[in-house]
Amino acid sequence: MKNQPRPKVLLLHQILEPGLTVLNEEVDVVAYPDDQPVEPKLIAQAAQGCLGILSLLKDPITEEVLSVPGLKVVANCAVGFENIDVAAATKHGVMVTNTPGVLDQSTADFAFALMMATARRVVEADQFVRDGHFEGWGIDLMLGRDLYGATLGIVGMGRIGQAVARRSSGFLMRLLYHNRHPVHRDVERALHAQAVDLDTLLVESDIVSIHVPLTSETRHLIGAREIALMKPTAILINTSRGAVVDEAALIDALKNHRLFGAGLDVFEREPEVPAALSALPNVVLAPHIGSASAVTRAEMSEIAARNLLIGIRGATPANLVNPEVLA
Q: Could you confirm whether 302 is annotated as catalytic?
């Protein structure tokens, strides 16, 4: 009796070990060509005969891809999944999974890294020294803002928002938060956090840190009106999704010193970064690396690989985004 052929899966980009080894133990991995644009039509062609696709968060998984015959699961190696047409996936009986939880601590660490770097002008100061401008200590040289004792406003008190909140205790920060629904009172008490409306948070906070998913409701959640409510000494931190903030309004506020500064790990039309934003000295820019610790990205890769394999077997992955597909 001939051996049954192993299932095939499409890997749109390389992932970290042990994720690749996990896949190779059970399936034949089809690597998407490095020299080919990652476009729906070409993804659909490459996915022919595959039961699963492992994608990253900028890969356009449209209905054209999701209608590939025999496709069972798309495993996104990310928490967000706005790159996937989830409604079309459900329509075509395709499971969609993500990798929540594993990156909470790394992203919270990086949010604080951006807070510190922006408040104390670390990038600007580094360039100042490298350019040979440092001529000795001065009482007014590179004056920044203090985090210690400041008011931190967290927009979105999910897992990452709560991880950021826990870190604030070491700075003895006053903690405000805004969420669609107040968190459990026990969590509020443990974090010493106060629920407020968004306007109050923006008016009273010295640092505003954003931790919401990108949805139709959160697109441009922070626009010109909201930025105008913030203190001119305030700092805006965004490690969620770029389009949650109206980038043009933010640039205008930073350029005209209506905000002290901003720390951004994400951009509205990523990977495009407006030249006007790059030219500003009062913003710290990072290339979407909030979860980019070696351990976290390896764990994300492994979780995505296991989600893919579980879906191919016909079982229910733990991180199923569209459970209605099983109805």
A: no
